[in-house]
Amino acid sequence: MTPAPDKDSPVVSSSSPATGPLPFGRLAIVGVGLIGSSLARAALARGLAGEVALADADPAVVARAAELGIGTSFHADAAEAAAGADLVISCVPVGACGLVAEAIGPVLKPGAIVSDVGSVKAAVVERMLPHLPEKDRFVPAHPVAGTEFSGPDAGFADLFEGRWSILTPPPGTAEEAISTVAAFWEACGANVETMTPAHHDLVLAITSHLPHLIAYNIVGTAADIEEVTQSEVIKFSAGGFRDFTRIAASDPTMWRDIFLNNKLAVLEALGRFSEDLAALQRAIRWGDGDALFNLFTRTRAIRRSIIDVGQDTPSPDFGRRPPGK
Ligand SMILES: NC(=O)c1ccc[n+]([C@@H]2O[C@H](COP(=O)([O-])OP(=O)(O)OC[C@H]3O[C@@H](n4cnc5c(N)ncnc54)[C@H](O)[C@@H]3O)[C@@H](O)[C@H]2O)c1
Ligand SMILES: O=C(O)C(=O)C[C@]1(C(=O)O)C=C[C@@H](O)C=C1
């Protein structure tokens, strides 16, 4: 059982094998991009649902999902997919999650659980919860796993294997709904942790959102520097810059929505980052080699500890990608 967080303890629990009513009779996934299609593939491959109903607002995505055979039914209408489902997961950009909740709310069967995968959590709760008939059956989630690719072709069944999925149930969420969603993610190969939406947004602002902002910025700056031609950016991007270009290739809609919906936490993290950057600027200007050396030693240890605990693979491009990409 994974209890709902209270306000005094933002991080409540780490994963321990959960049990739940798996397989579901019907799982509905709304938004069949990288994450939605990976979940659909994982659910089919691992036998987590009898029916996997897929819906997307883009007709080309619905057609492609059908062609790929990654579900059991394919819908242009989210409500049609959600009708009769035991679990409905919204896998659309954060800015569109309110529209999904509004569409599915009226057709949810009694007892159906609703979840999502958005990279921001407080705004998702604010946008989705008002439209849901059973407020205690909404269990927001965020799989901390992804790539810079989008769309149904980019997904793969093992994306969540060994990665974290963070659940952020609002206070009052039914324990049984939380443990069912936890069991679902564990069956997809993920480790589950539960925390408050606000705490999630603070943590992810520094570990995910700010790094993306920095990558977008540095690639934009490099492209703008007139003496560094486009061809040189490409030619010399085999080094550290290459990692930034990978991250800066991430989906513009998804990341626009993340920054607009986690504004305060990102601005707070950016403030701290700017202060530390100014300190580095001073160290370089005044020849303070010790300050530089000490920081670089500390950050090298952090990277090595990340690899040691198996949270990353030391691949040349630092990325996880679908087979064949
Ligand atoms: N990409 C990642 O690395 C990653 C990782 C974890 C979580 N997330 C979160 O997962 C969600 C989806 O990201 P993705 O990378 O799969 O995006 P994606 O662009 O690959 O897919 C999103 C899909 O949602 C569809 N869509 C948009 N609005 C819709 C609506 N109103 N109704 C139905 N379908 C709609 C789009 O047509 C598209 O097919 C986002 O909220 C993102 O923050 C992404
Ligand atoms: O590996 C990547 O491409 C990612 O950026 C994945 C990443 C992350 O920052 O770790 C990006 C956003 C998601 O919300 C979760 C995971």
Could you please describe the fold and organization of this structure?
- The protein is α/β, with parallel strands linked by helices.
- 46% of the residues lie in helices and 13% in strands.
- It has 12 helices and 9 strands.
- It has helices at 34-45, 59-68, 78-82, 97-104, 122-128, 175-187, 197-224, 230-235, 240-247, 252-261, 263-285, 289-308; strands spanning 11-13, 24-30, 49-55, 73-75, 87-90, 113-116, 138-143, 164-167, 191-195.
- The protein has a 9-stranded mixed beta sheet with strand order 1-9-8-7-6-5-2-3-4, sandwiched between helices.
- Helix 4 (97-104) runs parallel beside helix 5, helix 7 (197-224) packs across helix 9 (240-247) and helix 7 packs across helix 11 (263-285).
- The protein is globular, with a radius of gyration of 21 Å.
- Residues 1-19 and 313-321 have low confidence and may be disordered.
- It binds nicotinamide-adenine-dinucleotide and prephenic acid.
- The site of prephenic acid has 10 residues, from loops.
- Keywords: Amino-acid biosynthesis, Aromatic amino acid biosynthesis, NAD, Oxidoreductase, Tyrosine biosynthesis.
